[in-house]
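Page 47, continued from p. 46.
Same chain as before, 234 aa.
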Amino acid sequence: MKSFSNTYIFLFSSGLVILVAALLSIAAIVLQPFQKKNVEINNKQNILTSVNIETTAKTAEELFSKYIIESYVISPSGLKKEGIDAFTIDMKKELAKPVEERNLPIFVSSIDNETQYIIPVYGKGLWGPIWGYVSLNSDLSTIYGANFAHKGETPGLGAEIDKKEFQAQFIGKQIFNESGLFVSVSVLKGGTADPYSKYEVDGISGGTITSKGVDAMLKDCLSSYESYFKILKK
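Result:
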């Protein structure tokens, strides 16, 4: 059996490691535009789902161009910010900032000659982040649709927030009460929400912590837009 010196083995191993690292770096650079595009398409699908438009990866861009007529970024005081693409905003990073420093994206859709305002939301579930989009009717109080997703919630329990049955409960609910005060929509323990209430939905049975996460996510994110909503209403 042929033997090799320690120096040869070291040089060969080092060269192999460098070669593999180089190949992985090249692959990452080549694939990055495709990965970025896939993320963009997925976000467009989620935005459209929040206004009850079903899409596929193939139809997402066409339908997005058809129904999403505008997007922009505002400050918590309700003023539009120029030169910032709403699509580039990372809500996780924005929510880590003090409220007054946040950049708040808004997407505007037009369906059946009515205008909807789509708000991204981001929060924390039991095992990781949860996120989604909530769309409002032109009265800026009535929920037109909602779409939620998660990274690692428990299947059959907290993971149910991404199901249509859970999300459909939010349609028609109100985030402002009759006095014009922001109240959000409360996600209560499963089976305890008043079916006639404009401000309550049932949480996931057995997914209490995730349900509380959705509740907190809505209150935190939607309240950031309160000043802008009031400006639009006037």
